[in-house]
């Protein structure tokens, strides 16, 4: 096969250059010195007879040819990785695979304790990188930089396979000593009370419950906005504020914090969390194994949270 003199190892460097648009950051990302990265860029420029990256003002930008190369180069590298990982079987007990996953802190809290328990028992050499819900999560999965993405259905990419993981309802939580709120909320009272809410990232992207309320034509008084789900239950304590959060998270925190759980005044659609992976990892036996692990953990987690909360309620009475 004739590659016209192209060293295929240079495509790995080219992919990083196209993503980072910086010689320095590319070298740091792929563990090359700046001089070696600059040398690789020079060879790529010679091969393609194009500058690929040009200086405009104080930054490097891609040439038109480089823009056209972004997708096919990434696609080729993902196919190569899929070929390299196409093993006949995956042995969890002997594996030292490191999995990279993107998920919210909510999913981390309600799901990962069961996952880690099973990994320690069945795959002690496996390690994880748990990455936060980035604003560019879909771009990251497109580039194949993570093994799995766990997010609500509406945020996933249509270009890659996905499957249901678990669903969750919504409840309201208030401080247990908040006497201004009865056990049932009317919609008018709900909208009049100050709320603690979540918005993600520097762009403050609204999360699912806010998205639903807005489409139903209701606007809450968001007095406190935080970037993580796990801080929400703690921010209502000692106040008359209220928060609307997924039920699994509310029940987990109600075991440890002075909280009351109330039904929402409106019936909200259930939150559907799904798992997504790059299409070229469809046949990766390790990713297939981990997906099964997540499904089992999701089922166990739901049962354990419910049983634990029932036990706490029984002790309280």
Considering the chains and any ligands shown, give keywords for the structure.
317 residues, alpha/beta, Arc Repressor Mutant, subunit A, D-Maltodextrin-Binding Protein, domain 2, six-stranded mixed β-sheet, five-stranded mixed β-sheet, globular
Structural commentary:
The chain has 317 residues and is an alpha/beta fold. It folds into three domains: 9-84, Arc Repressor Mutant, subunit A (Orthogonal Bundle); 92-165 and 275-316, 3-Layer(aba) Sandwich (D-Maltodextrin-Binding Protein, domain 2); 170-269, Periplasmic binding protein-like II (D-Maltodextrin-Binding Protein, domain 2), CATH 3.40.190.10. Helices cover 44% and strands 21% of the residues. It has helices at residues 9-20, 23-30, 34-48, 64-84, 105-122, 137-142, 187-192, 208-215, 232-236, 247-254, 285-316; strands spanning 53-56, 59-62, 98-102, 127-131, 148-152, 162-168, 170-175, 194-200, 205-206, 221-226, 242-246, 259-263, 271-276. The strands form three sheets. Strands 7, 8, 9, 10, 11 and 12 form a six-stranded mixed β-sheet that branches. Strands 4-3-5-13-6 form a five-stranded mixed β-sheet. It has a two-stranded antiparallel sheet with strand order 1-2. The protein is globular.
């Amino acid at each position: 096969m004739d590659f016209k003199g192209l060293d295929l190892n240079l495509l790995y460097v080219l992919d990083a250059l196209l993503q980072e648009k910086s010689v320095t950051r590319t070298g740091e990302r792929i563990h090359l010195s700046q001089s070696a990265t600059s040398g690789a860029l020079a060879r790529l420029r010679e091969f393609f007879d194009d500058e690929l990256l040009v200086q405009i003002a104080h930054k490097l930008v891609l040439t038109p040819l480089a823009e056209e190369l972004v997708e096919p180069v990434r696609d080729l590298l993902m196919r190569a990785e899929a070929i390299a990982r196409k093993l006949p079987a995956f042995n969890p007990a002997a594996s030292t695979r490191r999995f990279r996953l993107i998920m919210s802190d909510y999913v981390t809290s309600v799901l990962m304790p069961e996952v880690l328990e099973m990994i320690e028992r069945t795959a002690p050499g496996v390690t994880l990188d748990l990455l936060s819900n980035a604003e560019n999560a879909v771009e990251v999965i497109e580039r194949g930089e993570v093994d799995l993405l766990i997010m609500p259905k509406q945020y996933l990419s249509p270009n890659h396979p996905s499957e249901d993981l678990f669903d969750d309802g919504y409840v309201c939580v208030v401080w247990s000593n908040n006497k201004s709120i009865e056990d049932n909320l009317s919609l008018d009272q709900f909208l009049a009370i100050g709320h603690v809410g979540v918005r993600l990232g520097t762009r403050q992207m609204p999360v699912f419950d806010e998205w639903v309320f807005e489409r139903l034509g209701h606007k809450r008084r968001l007095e406190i906005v935080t970037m993580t789900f796990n801080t929400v239950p703690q921010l209502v304590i000692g106040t008359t504020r209220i928060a609307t959060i997924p039920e699994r998270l509310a029940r987990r925190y109600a075991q440890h914090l002075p909280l009351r759980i109330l039904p929402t005044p409106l019936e909200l659609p259930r939150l559907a969390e799904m798992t997504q992976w790059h299409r070229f990892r469809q046949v990766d036996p390790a990713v297939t194994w981990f997906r099964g692990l997540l499904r089992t953990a999701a089922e166990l987690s739901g049962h354990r949270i419910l049983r634990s909360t029932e036990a706490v309620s029984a002790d309280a009475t």
